[in-house]
Amino acid sequence: MITLNGMRDPAVFRYDGIARFLHWLTAILIVAVFSLGLFVDAFPPGWEDSIVNTHKLIGISILCLVALRLIWRRSHKPPPPEAIGCLLQRVSSISHVLLYCLMIAVPVVGLAFAARSGQWIDFGLFSLGPVSVEDEGVARQIGEIHELLAYMLVGVAGLHALAAFWHHFVRKDAVLMRMLPPK
């Protein structure tokens, strides 16, 4: 769509408000859950159970948000893509698929770790006990996989953010604006 001054109408090329909200909420929760996992030992020892439980609850929330994002994306057409070239479009598509895979894998593997570690998840009104027999060796391996995947997720998300800034400040295109609220 072209406006009177010859420029594209930015509203046509933005994601809708729900998609933007889900995107930014997911990003904030990923930073929060990663920080809790990374700095759990920095809190007083008496807080560890609460911090770990909060970490698990946020992870479950991220998993639910990703499911909502996929449902929303399936039922709501995204805006037309920016003209960024075939190679950049391919890299963008691959990185988005990788982000979604990691946003699903990290909490799923984390839940497997909690189950094999014999951990409970306290939802406040009710708790879920471990669903499998405690197995320290297997739990440790699953925990290491969870940690590696979490670092990969944060790394890919960081590259995703850097790419958005590169588009905005170097290429001076509207890729970043697609996910920001209108002025």
Could you walk me through the main structural features you see in this protein, from its secondary elements to its overall organization?
This protein is mainly α and about 180 residues long. The protein has one domain (about 10-180): Fumarate Reductase Cytochrome B subunit (Up-down Bundle), CATH 1.20.950.20. About 65% of the residues lie in helices and about 0% in strands. It contains four helices and two strands. Strands 1-2 form a two-stranded antiparallel ribbon. A hairpin with a 4-residue loop joins strand 1 (about 120) and strand 2 (about 125-130). Helix 1 (about 15-40) crosses helix 4 and helix 2 (about 50-75) crosses helix 3. The longest helix has about 35 residues, at about 135-170. Residues about 1-5 have low confidence and may be disordered.
